[in-house]
Design goal:
The complex is a heterodimer. Chain A is mostly helical. Chain A contains eleven helices and five strands. Chain B has a three-stranded antiparallel β-sheet with strand order 1-2-3. Classes of the chains: A mainly alpha, B mainly alpha.
Chain lengths: 481, 389
């Protein structure tokens, strides 16, 4: 079943099929015109037999709250088959935490233009190499286009963001860049654009599968394995940037509320501040690195121009030995301009893109914290409503309206359930966020260390080449007599 | 004091000139010109005077205007000291003080002050090299104006040219270049000068282009070094803020980039000194050589005109003596200029080759030194970082 949700924001939630893997919207959402996430839902159901364990008929994993953190979940106390699988996933990860036993490598390659004109698109080959038992074979490939990646992200975001999971954002859309490619401009800038995108898509997938929960999501598995993928529609609204914008709007809305959340947990306050600071600093660093990329490219171009000029000067110089030395200088500078170009690429693909990725990731992290606040707000709202209903019921006690009194008592019962649910949701999301942040920080440390070391190695290479070139030139200069 | 780097000059005990000190005031620079001489022309053996840029220009122009020196390459005038760009940057920095941290401000201020100092040193060097070239020239060193310049310890009162004089200069140059085209078109009987003409015209243009391109290249280099500076600062802040393992990592990398960017800045500065300044200097010298060729061509044209006038006079049998004298003068002038010009151009080539050799060797040596320094820093940092991971 594929139902496309489009239309006004206040979409009734009752249409969601029981087989869906999307989030089940509480009826509380019905009356909420401000629910910006109604649009974010895309229902897809999968009928693959292997996935039975994950596709229970019961409520989707995304919204089933795990019992409060005070009790420990053990296979004995929990009978839900899905929860058992989820729990064992968590265990496995904790076991593997010590070593680097994540054995999966995804590459995005062979960009190929499909079609012509404005309907053309780039198809990328997505190859997965893994020894994990989750997959049928240990190496397999599929063809995917950019909107497929966006579609994957939108599904994951709609399922996991609002319950506290940090879903890696998909690469940004670029109308200008893509138009050039469509129009068939086979020049350096469109080649660079495709390479930038290919690299970004690869990093996106690797980050996604490194997340233990997301890796096992059926949409992810389908994306990696299935030769045919239903075309993701309305990716305009569902694009990563669009989603993040909605997340940020929600964040602003929450912040503007007069009811400030009583943060009883200092950990959250501290972490939020930490990510706030990190965001500011990473953006600043990113801007400086982007500037470096730009200036390094300029340096390459200007060095090439100087090389040509030096060659001309050498040609017109009438002293033979000096003329030869100037030509050699021109050759050295030409080689150096290529060196600068290569270094600019390293500056970009290693350093700059790392920072760009993390700036976007931190926006997702901040979004998750905001969801927690929203969850808290929901809980508080239902508590307030319960109180009102109780007061109303108390008043009704003194009137002779037995039907109304019964109705009030029923409503109260329902609300009491909601309040309990609200509290459970809040505790669950808080627990999830703690785990997620811990995992995120570990990844961040690993990522930064690994990539910065690679970057420094690129700088080493450049210096070694420079030494080679100038070493070869020196005797030529000395030979001038 | 900065030694003249672009010109390979023999230092001669009979006359040694240098700029021993310089003072930068708000809108002018005061150079202390120091002379050591055994020549009888001077009252003392060692003495100093204070001179400003305009006085150097006056001296240069007096050479150019002197007919007796028509056969020499007049050492090019030093460019006007230009601190405008640097001053503007310092001012902008002052205005933006509120928007940056104290560390950043101090850092940038130090950077700009170093830049200011570098420009200052350069202008001193360029004024000095002019004087040294004059002092090394067998004829110019005897010039009276030069001696006055060196010795007279009062203000020479050479106010800058007023508007009228500047306009006159402008028209003189226009006429000269129009003439230059005319005269350049006349094929020279003498192979040596014909070759030199072709050579210098092309060489001058190519040196001009190379000079401009080298400036652009070096500016990009400086910009990249500035970016690395900012990156180092950001990494430092990240290092102090981070609560994870990364804090030590960031601090170490920040420290590395602080050091490598100093080296990058040095590379740009050395390229500026050894390459850009060299090209700029030979741009000016090749212009001076072209001017010499022009003067010779002019005197050839005068000589040919005098011949024609003599023939006419003889034909009409009028004012023959006058015409003969005039023709002889022109002939003598032309031959004198040709003789000294030949030697000057040969010397020019010798100086040029020596200067390029010296500078290119030093450039390569410095590039190697800096690359090796950079490499060592990078490798040692990588060793630490990998060891701790």
């Amino acid at each position: 079943l594929l139902t496309d949700k489009s239309g006004p924001a206040s979409l009734p939630a009752e249409d969601i099929s029981a087989n869906s893997n999307g989030p089940k919207q509480d009826s509380l959402f019905d009356d909420d015109p401000e629910d910006l996430f109604a649009e974010a839902t895309e229902e897809v159901s999968l009928d693959s037999p292997e996935r039975e364990v994950l596709l229970s008929d019961g409520p989707s994993p995304a919204i089933t709250p795990i019992t409060p953190p005070t009790s420990v979940i053990t296979p004995k106390t929990c009978s839900d088959p899905f929860l058992l699988t989820l729990y064992s996933c968590f265990l496995k990860i904790e076991e593997e935490e010590g070593g680097d036993s994540f054995d999966m490598h995804i590459s995005v390659s062979d960009p190929e233009k499909v079609g012509d004109g404005m309907n053309a698109y780039m198809a990328y080959k997505v190859t997965t190499k893994t020894s994990m038992s989750l997959f049928k074979t240990d190496e397999f490939s599929v063809k995917r286009r950019f909107s497929d990646f966006l579609g994957l992200h939108s599904k994951l975001a709609s399922k996991y963001l609002h319950i506290g999971y940090i879903v890696p954002p998909a690469p940004e859309k670029s109308i200008v860049g893509m138009t050039k490619v469509k129009v068939g401009k086979e020049d350096q800038s469109s080649n660079e654009f495709v390479e930038k995108r290919r690299s970004a898509l690869e990093r996106y997938l690797m980050r996604t599968v490194k997340h233990p929960i997301l890796l096992k999501d059926p949409d992810v598995l389908q994306f990696l394995e299935s030769s045919e993928l239903p075309r993701a529609v309305s990716t305009q609204a569902l694009s990563s940037a669009g989603l993040l914008r909605m997340v940020n709007k929600a964040a602003d809305a929450v912040n503007k509320m007069t009811i400030k959340m009583n943060e009883s947990d200092a950990w959250f306050e501290e972490k939020q501040q930490h990510f706030e600071n990190l965001d500011v600093q990473l953006r600043k660093l990113h801007a400086s690195v982007e500037s470096l990329v730009c200036h390094r490219k300029e340096l390459s171009v200007n060095t090439a121009q100087f090389a040509k000029s030096a060659a001309m000067l050498g040609n017109s110089e009438d002293h033979t030995a000096l003329s030869r030395a100037l030509s050699q200088l021109a050759e050295v500078e030409e080689k150096i301009d290529q060196l600068h170009q290569d270094q600019a690429n390293a500056d970009f693909y290693l350093f700059s893109e790392l920072l760009g990725d993390y700036v976007r990731l931190i926006t997702a992290v901040k979004g998750v914290f905001d969801h927690r606040m929203k969850t808290w707000q929901k809980w508080q709202d239902s508590q307030l409503l319960l109180q009102k209903k109780r007061e109303a019921e108390a008043k009704l006690q003194f009137t002779n309206k037995p039907d109304k009194l019964q109705q009030a008592k029923d409503e109260i019962k329902e609300l009491e359930g909601k309040v309990q649910q609200g509290e459970r949701d809040f505790e669950q999301i808080s627990k999830t966020i703690r785990k997620e942040v811990s995992r995120f920080e570990k990844e961040r440390v690993k990522d930064f260390k690994m990539i910065i070391i690679k970057y420094l190695e690129s700088l080493v290479q450049t210096q070694q080449q420079l030494i080679k070139y100038w070493d070869a030139f020196l005797p030529e200069a000395k030979a001038i007599s | 004091s900065p030694r003249a780097v672009n010109v390979d000059l023999q230092t001669d005990a009979t006359l040694q000139v240098d700029i021993s000190d310089a003072l930068s005031e708000r809108d002018k620079v005061k150079f202390t010109v120091h002379t050591k001489s055994t020549l009888p022309n001077f009252k003392q053996n060692e003495f100093s005077v204070v001179r400003q840029h305009e006085e150097f220009i006056w001296l240069h122009d007096s050479f150019v205007e002197n007919e007796d020196y028509a056969g020499y390459i007049i050492p090019p005038a030093p460019p006007r000291p230009d601190f405008d760009a640097s001053r503007e940057k310092l001012q902008k920095l002052g205005e933006g003080e509120g928007s940056m941290t104290k560390e950043e401000f101090t850092k940038m201020k130090q950077e700009l002050e170093a830049e200011y100092l570098a420009i200052f040193k350069k202008t001193v060097a360029m004024h000095e090299v002019f004087l040294c070239r004059v002092a090394a020239h067998p004829v110019l060193r005897k010039d009276l104006n030069f001696h006055v310049f060196l010795e007279y310890n009062q203000d020479l009162s050479v106010r800058g040219k007023n508007k009228k004089e500047k306009l006159e200069d402008f028209f003189k140059n226009v006429v000269k270049s129009a003439d230059g085209v005319l005269v350049a078109g006349v094929k020279d009987v003498d192979d040596f000068f014909e070759h030199e003409k072709t050579f210098l015209l092309e060489y001058h243009n190519r040196v001009k282009d190379a000079s401009a391109k080298s400036d652009r290249m070096i500016r990009s280099h400086k910009n990249a070094a500035d970016d690395i500076n900012r990156i180092a600062s950001s990494l430092y802040t990240l290092g102090t803020q981070d609560s994870t393992d990364l804090c030590k990592f960031f601090l170490k990398v920040s420290e590395l980039f602080e050091k490598t960017r100093k080296i990058e800045a040095r590379v740009a500065a050395d390229e500026d000194l050894k390459l850009a300044d060299l090209l700029k200097y030979y741009l000016r010298e090749s212009q001076a050589a072209k001017d010499l060729l022009y003067r010779r061509s002019r005197s050839l044209v005068d000589y040919e005109n005098a011949n024609k006038a003599l023939d006419k006079a003889r034909a009409k049998n009028r004012d023959v003596l006058q015409a003969e004298t005039s023709q002889q003068l022109c002939c003598h002038k032309f031959e004198k200029i040709s003789e000294s010009a030949k030697q000057e151009l040969i010397d020019f080539k010798t100086r040029r080759v020596a200067a390029f050799r010296k500078n290119l060797v030093e450039l390569a040596e410095l590039e190697l030194k800096h690359a090796k320094g950079n490499l060592q820093l990078l490798q040692s940092c990588l060793g630490v970082l990998k060891g701790n991971t």
